[in-house]
Amino acid sequence: MSQAQLDDYIKKLQAETKVKARDQVINSLVSIVIGAGLAFWAYGTIPHMVLFSLMVFVIMGVKNSIEQALHQFRASIGAKMPMDHLEM
User: Fold this and answer.
1) Contacts of 61 (CB under 8 A, 6+ apart)
2) Which terminus of the chain is more solvent-facing, meaning fewer CB atoms within 10 Å of its CB: N or C?
3) What pLDDT score was predicted for residue 17?
4) Is 45 left (phi over 0), alpha (psi -120 to 50) or beta?
5) Angle 46-86/3-43 helices, nearest 10 degrees?
6) How far apart are CA 76 and CA 83, in angstroms?
7) The whole model's pTM is what?
8) In sequence order, which residues have a C-beta less than 8 Å from that of residue 10 and are 6 or more positions away?
9) Is residue 68 predicted with pLDDT exceeding 80?
10) Rg from Cα positions in the chain
């Protein structure tokens, strides 16, 4: 594997990371809106809507941080394989 292939692999990982980050933000926002809507529908009060929105926000934040850590771990393993071929 050449240096150019390694650079292409790193660019691919960076692009995947940007896409995953954007998807996580969109999924979090959609989940928060759905949670708030369901809370307002179920209880009919704004305090419940805010409470459920905050709960969903915290849960999605934890989920996103775990997914990010797993993605970084997998990316580091994947990046080591091409570097082993280049003996870096």
Assistant:
1) 28
2) C
3) 85
4) beta
5) 170
6) 11
7) 0.74
8) 79
9) yes
10) 19
Angle made by CA atoms 67, 60, 30, in degrees to the nearest 5:
115
- pLDDT score, position 37: 94
pLDDT at 6 (0 to 100): 75
**Which residues are within 8 A (CB) of 58 and not within 5 positions of it... i.e. 6 or more apart?**
none
Of the candidates 43, 41, 23, the one whose C-alpha atom is nearest the C-alpha of residue 31 is 23
Q: What is the pLDDT of residues 21-67, one digit of tens each?
A: 899 999 999 999 999 999 999 999 999 999 999 999 999 999 999 98
End-to-end CA distance of the chain, in Å?
12
Q: Where are the alpha helices (DSSP H) in the chain?
A: 3-43, 46-86
- Ramachandran assignment for 44, one of left (phi > 0), alpha (psi -120 to 50 degrees), beta (any other): left
